[in-house]
Amino acid sequence: MPAQEVLTADGVQVRLSLVGTAQIIDPVSWLFSSAAPFEAIYAALQVAVRDRVATVELAAIASSRKTLLEGVDAELEPTATALGAAITGVTLKDLTLPAEVRDAIAETALARQRGMAELERARTEAAAFRSLANTAKLLADNPALMELRTLQAATEGANIVIHRDGVVRQD
After folding, report:
1. Do residues 14 and 53 touch, judged by C-beta distance below 8 A?
2. Alpha-helix residue ranges (DSSP H) falling in the chain
3. Which among 45, 97, 130, 132 would be 20 to 30 A from 22, CA to CA?
4. Which whole-number Å values give the CA distances from 63 to 74, 90, 124, in the listed order?
5. Alpha-carbon distance 149 to 139, whole Å?
6. How many CB atoms are closer than 10 A to CB 19?
7. Rounded Cα–Cα distance for residues 7 and 116 (Å)
8. What is the pTM of this model?
9. Where residue 120 falls among pLDDT bands split at 50, 70, 90?
10. How far apart are CA 143 and CA 126, in angstroms?
11. To 10 degrees, the CA torsion angle through 140, 141, 147, 149?
């Protein structure tokens, strides 16, 4: 079935296309029950899909793509049987949402990703501040550690200037 515009339960128009398969089980009925059996099955499939989509809201359609058409083949069975056929499958091939909806979904996903990135930055910053606070407390509680750190920096090639008043400056 080529792409068709169908309204959802909440009034949003979606475009979908399907693949329906049938098997002729009674050739005599197939030939004599209708002048156009393919068109009869096509029309029944079209109505069944429209009826199904009309009962589902857009959010559910987007999230239930695989299950949206479950049972439609059973709904078509009486029509198909009268025509001498059996429906062997109905599959959703393509589902296209309106451009505005696609844009809104993309914006929502982008905002979610930005929020997660911002949260991760905040967590990293908080961890860095916690580490600095712990280091400051450790140095305040153990002044000898500052002297050891100063010596360590001196061995790494830093220029250390010690003033007469005991102030240590690292260049």
Report:
1. yes
2. 27-32, 37-53, 58-63, 72-82, 99-141, 143-155
3. 97
4. 22, 18, 34
5. 10
6. 11
7. 35
8. 0.57
9. very high
10. 25
11. -80
- One-letter amino acid for residue 34 of the chain: S
**How many Å separate Cα 110 from the centre of its chain?**
11
Residue 43 tokens, joined: 């029309």
Output the six-digit token pair for 123.
């967590």
Confidence of residue 153 (pLDDT cuts 50, 70, 90): confident
Q: Contact 100/20 with Cβ under 8 angstroms?
A: no
Neighbours of 26 (CB within 10 A): 15
Structure tokens at 55: 């009962």
Can you give the three-state secondary structure of 24-60, one letter per residue? ECCHHHHHHCCCCHHHHHHHHHHHHHHHHHCCCCHHH
Could you tell me the two tokens for 116?
A: 């997660």
